[in-house]
Specification:
With 173 residues, the chain is of the alpha+beta class. It is built from 5 helices and 8 strands, in the order βββαββββαβααα.
Protein backbone atom coordinates (compact mmCIF):
# COMPACT_ATOMS: atom_id res chain seq x y z
CA UNK A 1 0.00 0.00 0.00
CA UNK A 2 2.60 2.59 1.11
CA UNK A 3 6.24 2.53 0.19
CA UNK A 4 9.24 3.73 2.14
CA UNK A 5 11.42 6.01 0.09
CA UNK A 6 14.61 7.63 1.36
CA UNK A 7 14.90 11.27 0.29
CA UNK A 8 17.65 12.78 2.43
CA UNK A 9 20.43 10.32 3.08
CA UNK A 10 23.31 10.88 5.50
CA UNK A 11 26.84 9.79 4.51
CA UNK A 12 26.40 6.62 6.61
CA UNK A 13 23.43 5.58 4.42
CA UNK A 14 20.82 6.58 7.01
CA UNK A 15 17.89 8.96 6.43
CA UNK A 16 17.94 12.35 8.17
CA UNK A 17 14.93 12.07 10.50
CA UNK A 18 13.64 14.50 13.11
CA UNK A 19 12.06 13.08 16.26
CA UNK A 20 9.13 14.46 18.24
CA UNK A 21 8.00 13.02 21.56
CA UNK A 22 4.19 13.05 21.59
CA UNK A 23 3.45 11.52 24.99
CA UNK A 24 5.25 10.05 27.98
CA UNK A 25 3.31 7.94 30.49
CA UNK A 26 4.39 6.44 33.78
CA UNK A 27 3.08 2.90 33.88
CA UNK A 28 2.87 0.61 36.91
CA UNK A 29 3.06 -3.18 37.13
CA UNK A 30 1.93 -4.66 40.42
CA UNK A 31 3.92 -7.70 41.52
CA UNK A 32 3.97 -9.68 44.74
CA UNK A 33 7.02 -7.64 45.76
CA UNK A 34 5.18 -4.35 45.29
CA UNK A 35 4.80 -1.90 42.42
CA UNK A 36 7.27 -1.65 39.55
CA UNK A 37 7.34 1.74 37.80
CA UNK A 38 8.40 2.23 34.20
CA UNK A 39 7.84 4.74 31.39
CA UNK A 40 6.20 4.48 27.99
CA UNK A 41 7.04 7.03 25.26
CA UNK A 42 5.10 7.66 22.05
CA UNK A 43 7.45 9.12 19.41
CA UNK A 44 6.90 10.38 15.85
CA UNK A 45 9.80 10.65 13.38
CA UNK A 46 9.88 12.13 9.90
CA UNK A 47 12.12 13.79 7.35
CA UNK A 48 9.63 16.65 6.77
CA UNK A 49 9.57 15.64 3.11
CA UNK A 50 6.87 12.96 2.84
CA UNK A 51 8.21 10.23 5.14
CA UNK A 52 6.75 9.66 8.62
CA UNK A 53 6.64 6.89 11.24
CA UNK A 54 5.48 6.34 14.81
CA UNK A 55 6.88 4.14 17.55
CA UNK A 56 6.35 3.15 21.15
CA UNK A 57 9.16 2.57 23.63
CA UNK A 58 8.96 1.26 27.20
CA UNK A 59 11.77 1.29 29.77
CA UNK A 60 12.61 1.98 33.41
CA UNK A 61 14.08 5.41 32.51
CA UNK A 62 12.43 8.16 30.41
CA UNK A 63 15.42 8.73 28.10
CA UNK A 64 15.77 5.01 27.41
CA UNK A 65 12.02 4.77 26.61
CA UNK A 66 12.35 7.69 24.15
CA UNK A 67 15.36 6.03 22.47
CA UNK A 68 13.45 2.76 22.11
CA UNK A 69 10.47 4.67 20.70
CA UNK A 70 12.69 6.35 18.09
CA UNK A 71 14.14 2.98 17.04
CA UNK A 72 10.63 1.52 16.74
CA UNK A 73 9.44 4.53 14.72
CA UNK A 74 12.35 4.15 12.27
CA UNK A 75 11.16 0.59 11.58
CA UNK A 76 7.63 1.81 10.72
CA UNK A 77 8.29 4.54 8.13
CA UNK A 78 5.65 5.34 5.49
CA UNK A 79 5.66 7.48 2.34
CA UNK A 80 2.99 10.20 2.30
CA UNK A 81 1.92 12.10 -0.84
CA UNK A 82 2.59 15.79 -0.12
CA UNK A 83 1.89 18.24 -2.96
CA UNK A 84 2.95 21.90 -2.64
CA UNK A 85 2.95 21.61 1.15
CA UNK A 86 -0.55 20.17 1.47
CA UNK A 87 -2.36 16.86 0.97
CA UNK A 88 -4.07 15.94 -2.33
CA UNK A 89 -7.62 15.42 -0.96
CA UNK A 90 -9.82 15.17 2.15
CA UNK A 91 -9.44 12.02 4.23
CA UNK A 92 -11.18 10.54 7.27
CA UNK A 93 -9.79 7.71 9.40
CA UNK A 94 -10.66 5.97 12.65
CA UNK A 95 -8.55 4.05 15.16
CA UNK A 96 -10.27 2.80 18.28
CA UNK A 97 -12.52 5.64 19.47
CA UNK A 98 -10.32 8.33 17.89
CA UNK A 99 -11.48 9.80 14.59
CA UNK A 100 -9.50 12.26 12.49
CA UNK A 101 -10.43 14.42 9.52
CA UNK A 102 -7.73 16.07 7.41
CA UNK A 103 -8.38 18.51 4.56
CA UNK A 104 -6.05 20.30 2.16
CA UNK A 105 -5.58 24.03 2.81
CA UNK A 106 -4.47 27.02 0.75
CA UNK A 107 -0.80 28.02 0.76
CA UNK A 108 0.01 30.03 3.88
CA UNK A 109 -2.78 28.59 6.04
CA UNK A 110 -0.35 26.64 8.21
CA UNK A 111 -0.95 23.44 10.13
CA UNK A 112 -4.29 23.90 11.85
CA UNK A 113 -4.33 20.80 14.06
CA UNK A 114 -4.19 19.81 17.69
CA UNK A 115 -1.33 18.31 19.73
CA UNK A 116 -0.56 14.80 18.55
CA UNK A 117 -2.02 15.34 15.05
CA UNK A 118 0.22 18.40 14.60
CA UNK A 119 3.34 16.37 15.46
CA UNK A 120 2.50 13.74 12.82
CA UNK A 121 1.58 16.24 10.09
CA UNK A 122 4.65 18.44 10.65
CA UNK A 123 6.95 15.40 10.69
CA UNK A 124 5.43 14.28 7.37
CA UNK A 125 6.25 17.66 5.82
CA UNK A 126 2.68 18.95 5.49
CA UNK A 127 2.82 22.75 5.92
CA UNK A 128 -0.78 23.71 5.03
CA UNK A 129 -3.63 21.54 6.29
CA UNK A 130 -6.91 21.74 8.19
CA UNK A 131 -7.28 18.89 10.67
CA UNK A 132 -9.86 17.94 13.27
CA UNK A 133 -9.61 15.27 15.93
CA UNK A 134 -13.00 13.82 16.85
CA UNK A 135 -13.95 11.36 19.55
CA UNK A 136 -11.22 10.16 21.90
CA UNK A 137 -8.21 12.38 22.64
CA UNK A 138 -6.00 9.38 23.51
CA UNK A 139 -2.65 10.33 21.89
CA UNK A 140 -1.84 6.74 20.89
CA UNK A 141 -5.06 6.30 18.92
CA UNK A 142 -5.01 9.85 17.50
CA UNK A 143 -1.47 9.32 16.14
CA UNK A 144 -2.43 5.92 14.68
CA UNK A 145 -5.59 7.37 13.10
CA UNK A 146 -3.64 10.30 11.60
CA UNK A 147 -1.04 7.97 10.09
CA UNK A 148 -3.84 5.73 8.81
CA UNK A 149 -5.47 8.76 7.14
CA UNK A 150 -2.13 9.73 5.55
CA UNK A 151 -1.62 6.20 4.20
CA UNK A 152 -5.10 6.26 2.62
CA UNK A 153 -4.20 9.35 0.58
CA UNK A 154 -3.72 8.75 -3.14
CA UNK A 155 -1.53 10.74 -5.49
CA UNK A 156 -3.31 12.40 -8.46
CA UNK A 157 -1.11 10.45 -10.90
CA UNK A 158 -2.33 7.19 -9.35
CA UNK A 159 -5.98 8.34 -9.51
CA UNK A 160 -5.61 9.33 -13.18
CA UNK A 161 -4.04 5.98 -14.01
CA UNK A 162 -6.80 4.01 -12.22
CA UNK A 163 -9.57 5.98 -13.96
CA UNK A 164 -7.85 5.99 -17.38
CA UNK A 165 -7.90 9.79 -17.44
CA UNK A 166 -5.35 12.49 -18.11
CA UNK A 167 -3.93 14.26 -15.06
CA UNK A 168 -5.64 17.56 -16.01
CA UNK A 169 -9.07 15.84 -16.01
CA UNK A 170 -8.58 14.64 -12.42
CA UNK A 171 -8.28 18.24 -11.17
CA UNK A 172 -11.32 19.45 -13.13
CA UNK A 173 -13.66 17.37 -10.99
Amino acid sequence: MSKVIANKVKPGGEMELKEKVVAINRVVKTTKGGRTFSFSALVVVGNENGVVGQGLGKAKEVQEAITKGIEDAKKNLLKVPVMHGTIPHDQFAKEGAAKVLIKPAAHGAGVIAGGSMRAVLESAGVTDVLAKSLGSANPHNVVKATIKALTLLREPVEVAKNRNLKLTKVFQG
